[in-house]
User: What shape does this take?
Amino acid sequence: MRTDMKRMGTKGQRAAWMGALLAVVLGGTGCGSECVDTFDCRDKGTPAEGKAWACVAETCTQVTVDIEEVDAGTDAGTGSDAGTEPDGGTGTDAGTDGGTVACAPLPREQVLGTLQLQSGFSVAESAELSPEVVAVVSTPGPTHSLFGLRTTATGRDFFALGTWPDVTLGTAALDTVLAPADRASAADTYPSYFLAYDGTRLLAGYTKSGAGFPGSVAVVDPSGRDAALYLNAPGNYTAAGTTDAFFVNGGGLDTVTDGLGVYALVTSAKPYVAVKVADFPAQVGGSGFTAVADNGIAVFGYSEPDTYVNVAYAVSSTKLGEALASRTPVVLTNEPKVDVGSDFNAAASFGNGVALARGAYGATGFGVTDVSRFSLTPGLGGGQPISVGTRVAVLNAADACTSVDLLSSLGADLLVGVKDVNGRRLVRIRQGP
Assistant: This one.
């Protein structure tokens, strides 16, 4: 996520960044009618290229951010003055802010940081989030209870997070994701960064080293009425829930093992029933991402062989129901494809559509360039196929100084995990003003 500007030396870069900061500091001290600080200008839309919103003389004003390309490889530990100033790759800003030395003075607002909200969307509430929480899911509402998957060196656990927007990590785990046989060796397990909810129960998983990536998923009733259930789930990568069912993207589930694909766990009655509902092509790079929109349309995906770029297809609730009833999986590539236009590393329901965190892998890991939404519309009567809308940007990342590290849902709204020098938080984004 580099800017498209020419290079210059580190001292010149810092001077440019400090000039941008000065404009914000001088304009952020008033208490006038339009704004007090940059945060009050968050609803003004996307600023022009090379500019940022600032509160100047009590008025929201676009100020020039005259920055040059800031490369983590040049400025964070390898440049001529790396390590000679507080931010030279050793300070609190390095790493947290994308590994650059210039992030600290960058104009930013408290909620979105340097992320740019796009037209047609608005920010509602936000809440602080523990850095140990790697996945979040909420109940339907109208009062939204939140649950989180907390991972540490010694544990993989379900936690209550309170009621939105009063998000607080519970003092004790609801239960552990680890099956009894793996609890003494948590360090040998790899958490799958998902948490799903079927209206009553939570589901999370993990894998281990070995042929086929052996793994398990845990099904937990947060009310404590039922004991946790642990099921075989090799290669489980992502999952999503809908009423009385989970969809697990992986290599098998419970006693059903039929190669990579999407497996459903029907939880409406006991014992739960596992069924493979979507087949991937014979040659794929690996499992992919999973989401179910509010209208029941699912988005399932996998990574391409060789490149490992993720792709996704949309499947109607009718076809999923037929696959469950007939025990005949949907051929995923026969369904409408989501034209993502790039790789992506997260997916979540966003009303009657899906939000994807797009980007690509680089020297410092996966860089999210934007969070975008794709509408999903059921086909008309007579068996018409569902319609996948074109990409609509929700958030754009102008730089690496504010990262997106989580997507989830809150009712019809989107929850985005945001992290920068101001900490980590969940931000609720709505469609419309």
